[in-house]
Amino acid sequence: LKTLRLILGDQLNYQHSWFKEEQENITYVMMEMHQETDYVVHHIQKVIGFFSAMRNFSKHLEERDHQVIYFKINDDHNTQDLEKNLKHLITKDNFEKFEFQLPDEYRLDEQLNKICKGLDIESESFDTEHFFTRRDELENYFKGKKQMVMEYFYRDMRKKHDILMVNTKDPQGGKWNFDKSNRKKWKGTPEIPHERGFRKNVIDILEEIQKAEIKTMGTVNAENYNWPTSREDALSVLNYFCKNLLLHFGDFQDALHTDETYLFHSRLSFSLNTKLISPREVIDSVIDYYHDHKEEIDISQVEGFVRQILGWREYMRGIYWKEMPGYKRSNKLDNQNTLPAFYWNADTKMNCLHHAIKNSLENAYAHHIQRLMITGNYALLTETNPDEVDKWYLGIYIDAIEWVEITNTRGMSQFADGGIVATKPYVSSGSYINKMSNYCKDCHYNVNQKTGENSCPFNSLYWNFLDSKREIFRDNQRMKMMYSLLDKKAAEELEEIRERARTIIQQPADF
Ligand code: FAD
Ligand code: SF4
Question: Residue 134: pLDDT above 90?
Answer without folding.
Answer: yes
